[in-house]
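The methods section describes the discrete structure representation at length, but only in general terms. Since the whole study asks how a given chain folds, the encoding of that fold should be made plain. An entry of this sort, consisting of the sequence and the corresponding backbone structure tokens, reads as follows:

. . .
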Amino acid sequence: MFLLSDAIAQETQNQPSTTDRTTQRLAKFPGIHDFIGQMASKHGFDRDELFATFAQVRHSKQAIQLVRPAPPDKPKNWQAYRARFVEPVRIEAGVRFWNRYARDLARAEKQYGVPAEIIVAIIGVESIYGRHTGNFRVLDALTTLAFDYPETPNRTARMAFFRGEVEQTLLFARESGLDPLSLRGSYAGAIGWPQFMPSSIRAYGVDFDHDGKIDLRKSPADAIGSIANFLVRHGWKRGEPIVFRAQLGAAAKSRLDSLLNKGLEATFWPAELEIAGVTSNVELPANIRFGLIDLQNGYEPTEYWLGTGNFFAITKYNRSYFYAMSVTELARAVRTAHNAEPEIAAEAMHEQSVAKNVP
């Protein structure tokens, strides 16, 4: 006689147990057991609790796909890159953001020496002022990239980097009283309005709204202060310019490799550049070092600029000349648009002041 209860029991016996399913899931992350042990011995985490946390982590095929470098089918094109970021949506939204958070931006500029427009531009480039902060579970993305990074020439180094970010995520979550699985961000694990990696939150995050916590997901004020702190800690100098147009003579063009390949640092004094055949259409400050920047324009002529230490501080946020230049140019555009409507800016600052004093 066929009994439904017997069939259900048989089916249940054939299903993998919770322990088996957990083992299968963790098998996608080779080395995770050793990592859990290291976190327990190094930072005092409970092994069982960590095991239970990672048992809920999902392998992210999408993170792997997105982190793969695109095939070099076209030469780099600065003007095409610029058009993605220095455009009306970001400029208009940047002015609105500046007006709304004028007091916080002014306070950051006074405290850190970083101009308001640079902070505004970074938030605009990174997340369009909080519109696109990413919807990946951070621990899913980071764990996948830490233990199953795609086969690339720099795979070992990248896995080590992301493993460090998993460690920092767990530490940040513990310090903040958060469930690490609740954190959402980009496919590479960047979080919040300024898209800080977990290690950067712990190292450079600032409680700029003084509410007792650093929250880059919900506090624009914390994002403002944290970006300014990051730049200063990476060499930003109050009042220093950022870039100047460069003009290359024949001597400079013959030795471009030696002028360009200096890392993300400003290393040349203006006198040294002049001897090498690099000048500008304006007189360069004699007491500031510069680095030569090449912005390739596809099949069109390359643009050359001279960046100060402040330009290279921006490259520490994202190690790309294109990125730092797009921040610089978006900042200029937002400042121009903001200055064109001073009455609106003054009114917004007044409203923010009144709101802060309302019981």
